[in-house]
Write a structure and sequence with these properties.
Blueprint: H1 11-14, E1 18-29, H2 68-80, E2 84-85, E3 92-95, E4 105-108, E5 115-124, E6 127-140, E7 144-148, E8 160-164, E9 171-177, H3 187-205, E10 217-227, E11 237-242, H4 245-264, E12 272-277, E13 282-288, E14 298-299, H5 310-319, H6 324-335, H7 339-348, H8 351-359, H9 364-372, H10 374-382, H11 393-405, H12 410-423, H13 427-434, H14 442-455, H15 457-464, H16 471-481, H17 488-498
Parallel strand pairs: 11-12
Antiparallel strand pairs: 1-9, 1-10, 2-5, 3-4, 3-14, 5-6, 6-9, 7-8, 10-11, 12-13
């Protein structure tokens, strides 16, 4: 029976016969104001081909000039990933012919990258896994093709294609890991944790907005299988441009199962690029890589070598902010979080939001509950990261404060959060405009309680007769009459008093 047979293709069963080896190539658009070799804007979402010039369009005679900020940002990334920083390196021309490459070559780095030999530690299921970093190198991004018509959105079957060169020339950093063996069934989780940790580091450094949905952080996932007990690694495939954390994990898991099915049937794995399909959770074939592409690399003749001075690198190292792993350890110690509590915040991508909410004055337990509870639910419904919600930690802390003082009930607090997200207004403005403060006027609550008793005489009689749980019906009636703006405990006490029953 093979993995292609129903019931045997389960992921866990595959891992009894094969061990995965993976590697990741992560492309990061740097958040500089201008492009890598010219002064054109890097603003996202502009009209197609409006941020271009003779340099980034590759016009004859136009010469590139290096962006110093991009070099500094790349050194920051290398230092944060424990890399060595080259004292001398240079750019090369990588020659290939795609319609989104206006020069028909890409300025990149080849055998002399600016950063090499580093590592990044990630925590998965209570285990620390060290991911080796092979290199971090600089290059320029390509343009973007849009294939119109057809069923797949790709060039095959399209009616026509459009190209936008706004992205061409944006500073791009490629972070390449070493192969990662030995993680077993955790391999997809480790890959996801690595990309998540890398994204948090880049965001903390302030070198990129790391918006995967906009392509400023995208990942190529290399996967191969080794038969159990073998020391020889299998043929790898490369799943291109995976653009979400969830998809990194799903793409690798899918590819492991697919490759196992082929090997079990006596077939062989083709070295190729593949594309992950969000709708099916499967990968599909792209182009063969079984023959090495000759990019005809040679040193870029229009740029001088890059030679970062040692004292400059030292200054950059000294300026690095507290990195995410160190911050998590500090928060755990300062706020008394358990390992499980901290990990739940990490998994939700809410560590920074939680910490900033506590810094704004909220109790740690309440801040954690809000970010992992209602706010995470809203983020899931909107299909965004919880940190991307349009509400600030200070605003969440204010809601928590008002709930704590009784100005808002928890339900009203949630309505205030909804209002902030819907309108962009402040907490106090939403409360005032929507009349969401708790009704604390005792006379108004007593009037509402009397009305509820009068409208529900049978229920009132049950309560008088000792069936106290029935008072919940009356409480609900009052809460409805006050649009949920009364404190339920206060309402219950008033109702029991009016009914002459001791609570």
């Amino acid at each position: 029976m093979t993995t292609q047979t129903a019931g045997v293709s389960a992921y866990d069963e595959v891992l009894t016969r094969y061990q995965p080896v993976f590697g990741l190539e992560t492309h990061v658009e740097l958040g500089t104001a201008s492009k890598m070799f010219c002064g054109c804007s890097t603003e996202f979402g502009a009209e197609p081909n409006s941020h271009t010039c003779p340099v980034c369009l590759g016009m004859p005679g136009a010469l590139p000039v290096m962006n110093a900020a991009a070099i500094e940002y790349t050194i920051k990334i290398g230092l944060a990933l424990n890399c060595t920083i080259a004292s001398w390196c240079r750019f090369a021309r990588k020659n290939y012919f795609y319609p989104d490459m206006p020069k028909n070559y890409q300025i990149s780095q080849y055998d002399e990258p600016i950063c090499g030999e580093g590592h990044l530690d990630v925590e998965v299921n209570g285990q620390t896994v060290r991911i080796g970093i092979e290199r971090v190198h600089m290059e320029e991004d390509t343009g973007k093709n849009t294939h119109v018509g057809g069923a797949t959105g790709r060039i095959h079957g399209a009616d026509y294609s459009l190209v936008d060169f706004n992205r061409a020339g944006i500073p791009l950093v490629e972070i390449v890991t070493k192969p990662v063996p030995g993680t077993g069934a955790m391999a997809p989780e480790v890959a996801r944790a690595y990309v998540a940790e890398l994204r948090d580091i880049l965001r903390t450094l302030g070198v990129s907005d790391v918006k995967m949905e906009q392509g400023s952080l995208r990942c190529d996932v290399n996967t191969s299988l080794t038969p159990a007990g073998s020391s020889e690694w299998g043929t790898r495939t490369e799943t291109k441009n995976v653009n979400s954390l969830r998809s990194v994990e799903r793409a690798m898991r899918s590819e492991i199962i697919r490759q196992a099915g082929i090997l079990d049937a006596g077939g062989r794995i083709k070295q190729e690029t593949r594309h992950f399909q969000e709708t099916t959770g499967q990968t599909r074939s792209g182009r063969s890589k079984e023959e090495a592409t000759d990019y005809r690399y040679f040193p870029e003749p229009d740029l001088v070598p890059v030679a970062p001075a040692a004292d400059w690198v030292s200054q950059i190292r000294a300026s690095l902010p507290e990195l995410p792993a160190a911050r998590r350890n500090r928060l755990r110690s300062e706020l008394g979080l358990s390992a499980e509590e901290l990990q739940s915040l990490v998994n939700a991508g809410a560590v920074d939001a939680f910490a900033d909410t506590v810094a704004a004055g909220a109790p740690a337990a309440e801040a954690r509950n809000w970010w992992l509870g209602y706010l995470s639910q809203l983020a899931n419904a909107r299909e965004v990261e919880v940190s991307a919600l349009a509400i600030t930690p200070a605003q969440v802390a204010k809601v928590i404060e008002l709930v704590g003082t009784g100005t808002l009930s928890t339900a009203l607090g949630r309505q205030v959060v909804d209002g902030v997200l819907d309108t962009g207004a402040g907490v106090e403005q939403v409360i005032a405009e929507r009349g969401l403060a708790v009704v604390s006027d005792t006379s108004a609550l007593t009037e509402a309680a009397d009305a509820a008793i009068a409208a529900n005489p049978d229920i009132a009689e049950k309560v008088r007769g000792g069936k106290l749980p029935a008072v919940g019906v009356l409480v609900g009636s009052v809460m409805k009459a006050t649009r949920g703006q009364a404190d339920a405990a206060t309402v219950k006490a008033i109702l029991l008093e009016r009914l002459g029953v001791s609570g």
